[in-house]
Design goal:
The complex is a heterodimer of chains A (420) and B (319). With 420 residues, chain A is of the alpha/beta class. In chain A, 33% of the residues lie in helices and 17% in strands. The chains are: A alpha/beta (420), B alpha/beta (319).
């Protein structure tokens, strides 16, 4: 039984959600496992009947009856956004999303205090914004690293007194650092967090090992490798490991090291939401993205030509893939070109994790680089496969599962693979 | 990637978790309750569908289904399907600001809970009412249930801004498989609803009253005891004309209701609606098109004869 891990080899928004939905539509999937990020994920899934949901914390396979969601300890859990998301799922025909959810008790909580601190910092940065989403995910990670023993975690929601203490200490520390926070009193926060604990299955690490033994699981990544905390272009990064690293550690802990087929997702239009390098950016590209409107925290959604240099770097940083999923092929046309090299180099090499000075220098170099373009390839799947030296095993030319096509046996539905 | 489109308000979230209880949707009934839930009690009650700032053009939709024994598994199947109705209507935009009320019908001659009526709601709180419905499973065995009491309640105990402000009818769907009793009995009304009528009211008079303000449909689902029984269908065709509809596939109940409303609101024609369904990958197109073929041609305020059946009294008199 092979599991599947889905990671974005760009700046996010490549279509991981539609790939995960398609995987769950074409085979029996036990659980979709989130292994990084938090409620700022926005994975859009559209069904043939027009139903649409933006998956933030629930796995993008949730439209398929019986498919579970597991939030592993690497996810920053936001019980408030979770409740609203579950209610929306109920209006699109999924009344039991919370019943199919398991959350690791060790996962950090995002709270209104993290959010208020996140916004206070981003406003103080003024024009030099990082493109943060304003949900406090990064704040929660930073606080968890600084105060591992008293950062609020999912399991604390079962003990109101403990949670009250931890939220109070959190609020006081952040207030001392940033001034008064625009957030409700601790006492007003408690009912939502305890209500979450009363409603959702909070589990320990052994649960995941059982799930991985019980059936095929899909690991759904959030954001993209080019935003990775160590390999992204500092400081325009996320407080999250966006490579396969967390997947591999979870599998190893469960006694199934290397047990997942690694899929890298790319769109033929390289995009970015928020500030930071996007070498191939071209405001003249006649594109809009209905799922990514401008918002006050990240500004405009930016479009660029296919940046093979950046995606090759992401692939190397991620440690390679078994196959690529290429999305948005419906946008191919005479306007959309491919960038195989910059004026300064055709190759960016990943460094060791943790060397932020090196990443800062890389960012500066990218901001000075100019793209060199080739004509649009006739066959995008072939061109991308050649540039990245990895097989394109799935192509997508639209939002629904019907718009996907497999290439080769790697992602063929198991029953099809057996008869082949 | 994204920006967090889901509300992170602590008060909202607390309220959502309070309302969200992972339990069987018929938990009230399944917990052994055999009396009407206070929230669904028709006694001295009125049900209102009102406009609000958020929902300025409310369209009231009432769905009442037979919960007696002859319906077999139908009520539970409906209960799993009906929560999707609101989302479907909102997605398709067939009706402005839909407000949905669920209710249940039993037999006043022998059941403990002959009539249960929820509230008109614009969000999924209506599902809470579904969960409070007591499944009788009884019934009288004489091929009749107290549909006339439900029609009476809808005629005289509902108030809608849609009618009062705009002169527009709401939608009433009765889902069942038997006949109504020929009279609304004053004694039953006094006991259940609390009105003092003095004398029984003939069924046809109640139908005339209710259809004045409600576009009324009778859906006869497959899988119920009397499905395919010509007596039952003829009875309702005689009262409601083309608005008595056979439903082959219970799974298509929401699509059938939504499309019926879309036709009634003249938001779509039948072909377009079926295209929507087909595009949606719904397996229901055959069922729905069969059920609604007549409605698609005969618009509201028209009377069409029924080629497949003997000519009836000409459907419902429209105002």
């Amino acid at each position: 039984m092979r599991h599947v891990a889905v990671v974005d080899l760009g700046y996010g928004d490549a279509g991981k959600g539609t790939i995960v939905d398609w995987l769950c539509a074409t085979r029996r999937v036990h659980t979709v496992i989130r292994f990084n990020g938090g409620a700022q994920a926005a994975h859009n899934v559209v069904l043939r009947d027009g139903r649409h949901h933006t998956f933030a914390q629930f796995g993008a396979g949730t439209f398929h009856p019986g498919v579970g969601t597991h939030l592993s300890r690497h996810v920053v859990v936001d019980p408030l956004a979770l409740a609203a998301e579950a209610d929306h799922l109920a209006t699109v025909g999924v009344p039991d999303a919370l019943d199919r959810l398991t959350v690791d008790g060790d996962a950090l909580l995002a709270t209104p205090y993290h959010r208020a601190a996140n916004r206070a910092r981003e406003i103080a940065r003024g024009a030099d914004r990082h493109g943060s989403c304003g949900l406090g995910v990064g704040e929660a990670v930073a606080y968890g690293l600084a105060h591992p023993d008293d950062a609020p975690r999912v399991a604390d929601c079962r003990s109101p007194a403990l949670l009250r203490r931890r939220l109070t200490v959190l609020r006081d520390r952040l207030t001392a650092e940033l001034g008064p926070l625009d957030a409700p009193p601790v006492e007003d926060c408690l009912p939502a967090f305890t209500g979450f604990a009363g409603r959702v299955a909070i589990v320990d690490a052994s649960w995941l090992a059982g799930a991985l033994r019980s059936g095929t699981c899909v690991f759904e990544g959030a954001q993209g490798v080019l935003l990775d905390e160590w390999h992204g272009f500092h400081p325009y990064t996320t407080w999250s490991t966006t490579t396969f690293a967390n997947v591999e550690s979870l599998l190893a802990e469960a006694g199934q090291p290397g047990g997942a087929t690694r899929i890298g997702v790319l769109r033929i239009v390289t995009t970015r939401h928020g500030a930071g390098p996007l070498v191939t950016e071209d405001p003249a590209l006649p594109l809009v993205d209905s799922h990514n409107p401008t918002n006050p925290w990240q500004g405009r959604f930016r479009f660029g030509h296919f940046d093979a240099v950046a995606h090759r770097y992401a692939l190397a940083a991620a440690g390679g893939v078994d196959g690529l999923a290429l999305t948005h092929l419906d946008l191919a046309g005479p306007d959309l070109r491919i960038c195989r090299r910059y004026d300064t180099t055709d190759r960016l090499d990943p460094g060791p994790p943790g060397d932020l000075d090196r990443q800062t220098a890389l960012t500066a170099r990218l901001l000075r680089s100019r793209p060199l373009y080739d004509d649009p390839p006739r066959d995008w799947a072939e061109a991308v496969g050649t540039e990245l030296d990895a097989p394109v095993v799935l192509t997508s030319r639209g939002p629904t599962a019907d718009d996907k096509r497999t290439h080769g046996p790697l992602l063929a539905a198991p029953e099809l693979a057996r008869s082949a | 990637m994204g920006s967090g489109i889901w509300s992170t308000d602590v008060y909202d979230a607390a309220d959502r978790y309070r309302r969200s209880t992972g339990r069987s949707a018929f938990s009230y009934s399944d917990s052994g309750a055999r009396t009407v839930h206070p929230a669904l009690d028709p006694r001295d009650a009125s049900r209102e569908s009102r406009d609000s700032d958020e929902h300025p053009q409310s369209t009231p939709i009432a769905v009442l289904f037979d919960v007696t024994g002859s319906m077999r598994r139908v009520p539970r199947a409906l209960q799993t399907k009906l929560p999707q109705l609101l989302g479907l209507l909102q997605r398709q935009g067939y009706a402005s600001d839909p407000q949905i009320m669920f209710g249940a019908i039993g037999d006043a001659t022998c059941d403990r809970v002959p009539l249960q009526v929820g509230q008109f709601e614009s969000d999924n709180r209506m599902d809470d009412d579904l969960g409070r419905i007591v499944l009788e499973g009884g019934g009288g065995g004489q091929m009749s249930e107290s549909y006339e009491l439900a029609l009476y309640f809808m005629a005289r105990h509902t108030v809608t801004d849609n009618w009062d402000k705009r002169g527009r009818r709401g939608y009433l769907f009765i889902i069942g498989d038997e006949l109504a009793y020929p009279q609304v009995k004053a004694r039953e009304v006094a006991g259940l609803i609390g009105d003092d009528l003095g004398e029984d009211v003939p069924l046809r008079q109640v139908v005339d009253e209710v259809t004045r303000r409600w576009d009324t449909y009778y859906l006869l689902p497959a899988g119920s005891h009397y499905a395919g029984n010509a007596t039952v269908l003829d009875f309702w065709r005689d009262l409601l004309g083309q608005n008595a509809v056979v439903l082959d596939d219970l799974d298509a109940v929401c699509e059938t209701i939504a499309l019926t409303i879309g036709l009634g609101e003249q938001a779509i024609d039948l072909d377009e609606g079926l295209r929507h369904l087909d595009h949606a990958g719904s397996a229901a197109t055959g069922t729905v098109s069969k059920a609604l073929a007549r409605l698609g041609r005969g618009r509201r305020a028209e009377v069409s004869t029924l080629p497949a059946f003997r000519d009836t009294t000409g459907g419902v008199r429209r105002l």
